[in-house]
Amino acid sequence: MDEIAAVRGIWSELGLPGIIDVHTHFMPKNVMDKVWQYFDSQGPLIGREWPITYRADEQQRLATLRDFGVRRFTSLVYPHKPDMAAWLNQWAREFGRNTPDCLATATFYPEEQAGRYVAQAIDEGTQIFKVHIQVGAYDPNDPLLDEVWGLIEDAAVPVVIHCGSGPAPGEYTGPAPVEKLLARHPRLVLIVAHMGMPEYSEFLGLAEKYDSVRLDTTMAFTPFAEAMTPFPVADRGRLYAMGERILFGSDFPNIPYGYADALRHTMDLPGIDDTWRRNVLHDNAARLFGLDGA
User: Fold this and answer.
1) Rounded to 10 degrees, what is the CA torsion of 114, 26, 254, 177?
2) Phi, psi at residue 20, to the nearest 5°?
3) DSSP per residue over 138-158, as a string?
4) pLDDT tens digits for 242-259?
5) What was the pLDDT predicted at 46?
6) N or C terminus: which one in the chain shows less Cβ crowding within 10 Å?
């Protein structure tokens, strides 16, 4: 079946107006090229063959998402060194102005000026932040981020946070640093990327403890992820019970399989119902971002 028809069939059969994908990447071309080169080289944080399925120019990638019926998406950017985040935010701000179906996105890094550019991003209408603890290799509790987390908590802007130890552990990955962060900032709206793989159980526990914590499905449940980090069968009941705080994410375009495959493996989980499916594909994100008319 044509992939566009397959994707559109999944959400239309649920009576949805489309999909809200909270985990997609649009970056400056030179940055995206370097990301793809890293995947191509099977870098140390990858460690396995990882072909980029949707390697295309920016306009083609946008057209693909829109053809799939993705109503809202993100331009998740993230720095791996100082003096990079403000520049990425400037790029993402311009991209968002030219791409109205993209949720306004920003990022940050532990550095002296972080509070200033995060405050500016919030003032300019940022709808979502992205932080990558694994790639950035920093402690989310770094004192240089104290002001940042306070600003974001007060503004209630969601943060997609890659903090699990997959695909390779880092010094600051895992649930412990995030639990420490939430103890200090319990109202932070954190969206734990990749369901927190491989520490699925522990991050589900944080979501059960903190009402503001959510998880995104990015890459979880697919054969590619299940081969290395299978979701524990014993936690399926907890997963279903958390249905109002799980959001669909794809990692488009940097996925080694088709978009329809990612949808199918999430939507075909045993024991879920259509309310769970609608919540995850669209309704939870629509409520979180105030997009009920999306």
Assistant:
1) 20
2) -110, 115
3) --TT-GGGHHHHHHHHHHT--
4) 999 999 999 999 999 999
5) 81
6) N
